[in-house]
């Protein structure tokens, strides 16, 4: 445990590096239990997460509204360090959180927007409608989630947006190989 | 079979998004953790790291003031007074492969791409508790061994050599932290 002092550190030196090994200070946190042990911490955590789900709609609405506010600031002031950062951060949070909250298509639309912000050579040259469509898509997906037919529509919408954004980015970065590589590289995020 | 005695582990979580902090806290408490400290930016996290001496750090990447990557670099200062060896789990919405490499090179122990799952988080914690890797110190790197696997069939250039050691101090990011607090 952190309150204890770590064990003796062993250092082996080589030409270009040292290899430092210390007795595992967290080893005593491992408990040997019989195979018949019924404790299921992951299951318990999943249940606790499900218990929070009643709040997800409200959280998602807050996140979507933050994104819209960031977009409104861009429309008012144009892109500068502050407005760019806030728009990216708001979109990036939705990209990371929305699937957990039950809105995977909103996450996909937000990811597409993040890619535009990160890889467009000149954000001022990005068609305003392309960005606006992403914001509107996130809002529509969040506001209309309870309708039975919206899940499929939301999926199609976010995929189409991603396709258009990727086409734009591929063209805009045709002379920037490092960005092209990043744009075309596969994501490591778990599939939906 | 092994399981983790979570109630003896001390966690520091760092994420600027309050909803994600709530989810993380819920998951960790459900696993059995009792000591979970939270910060919403890298600068506060660094202060809390020094003060609470957590066993495991879970940090977001994109954050105000300084980000999770810089936080990892500041923790991984071999000459610092704090513990530079604590496992760092980077939990982030960045899901590009090149980001994993950048995080790894900053001394991050495990990388977990959002969306978060109870299973994914548990597995990462189990990994850092049960299978810690030795640390490597070079001119430009201090952190967990970036080679997770050894292979006898590798035929590329050998970057690690033998002979005399020259150790250079890494530029301190601590000053940056201090100037922003």
Automatic annotation (TrEMBL), chain B:
GO biological process, one term: phosphorelay signal transduction system
InterPro entries assigned to the protein according to its UniProt record, in alphabetical order: CheY-like_superfamily, Sig_transdc_resp-reg_receiver, ST_Response_Regulator
The entry's keywords: Phosphoprotein
Domain of life per record: Bacteria
Chain positions found as 4-aspartylphosphate: 60
Annotated ranges, domain Response regulatory: 10-129
Gene3D superfamilies named in the record: 3.40.50.2300
Keyword flag Repressor: no
PANTHER family: TWO-COMPONENT RESPONSE REGULATOR, TWO-COMPONENT RESPONSE REGULATOR ARR22
Protein name, entry field: Response regulator
């Amino acid at each position: 445990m952190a309150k204890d002092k770590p064990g003796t550190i062993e250092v082996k030196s080589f030409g270009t590096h040292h290899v430092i090994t210390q007795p595992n200070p967290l080893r005593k946190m491992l408990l040997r239990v019989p195979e018949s042990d019924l404790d299921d911490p992951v299951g318990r955590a999943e249940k606790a997460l499900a218990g929070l789900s009643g709040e997800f709609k409200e959280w998602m609405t807050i996140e979507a509204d933050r994104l819209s506010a960031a977009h409104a600031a861009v429309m008012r002031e144009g892109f500068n360090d502050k407005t760019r950062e806030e728009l990216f951060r708001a979109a990036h949070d939705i990209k990371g959180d929305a699937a957990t909250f039950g809105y995977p298509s909103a996450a996909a639309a937000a990811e597409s927007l993040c890619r535009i912000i990160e890889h467009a050579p000149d954000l001022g040259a990005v068609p305003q409608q392309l960005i606006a469509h992403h914001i509107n898509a996130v809002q529509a997906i969040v506001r209309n989630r309870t309708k039975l037919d919206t899940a499929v529509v939301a999926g199609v919408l976010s995929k189409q947006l991603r396709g258009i954004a990727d086409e734009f980015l591929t063209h805009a970065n045709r002379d920037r190989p490092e960005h092209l590589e990043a744009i075309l590289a596969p994501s490591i995020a778990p599939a939906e | 079979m092994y399981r983790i005695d979570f109630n003896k582990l001390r966690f520091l979580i760092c994420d600027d998004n309050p909803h994600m902090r709530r989810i993380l806290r819920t998951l960790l408490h459900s696993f059995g953790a009792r000591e979970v400290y939270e910060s919403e930016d890298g600068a506060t996290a660094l202060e809390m790291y020094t003060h609470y001496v957590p066993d495991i750090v879970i940090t977001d990447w994109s954050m105000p003031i300084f980000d999770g990557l810089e936080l990892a670099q500041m923790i991984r200062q071999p000459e610092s007074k704090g513990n530079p060896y604590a496992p760092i789990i980077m939990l982030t919405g960045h899901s590009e492969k090149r980001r994993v490499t950048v995080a790894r090179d900053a001394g991050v122990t495990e990388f977990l791409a959002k969306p978060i799952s109870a299973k994914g988080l548990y597995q990462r914690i189990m990994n850092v508790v049960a299978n810690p890797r030795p640390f490597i110190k070079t001119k430009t790197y201090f952190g967990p061994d970036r080679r997770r696997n050894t292979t006898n069939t590798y035929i590329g250039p050998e970057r690690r050599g033998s002979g005399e050691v020259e150790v250079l101090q890494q530029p301190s990011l601590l000053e940056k932290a201090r100037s922003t607090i």
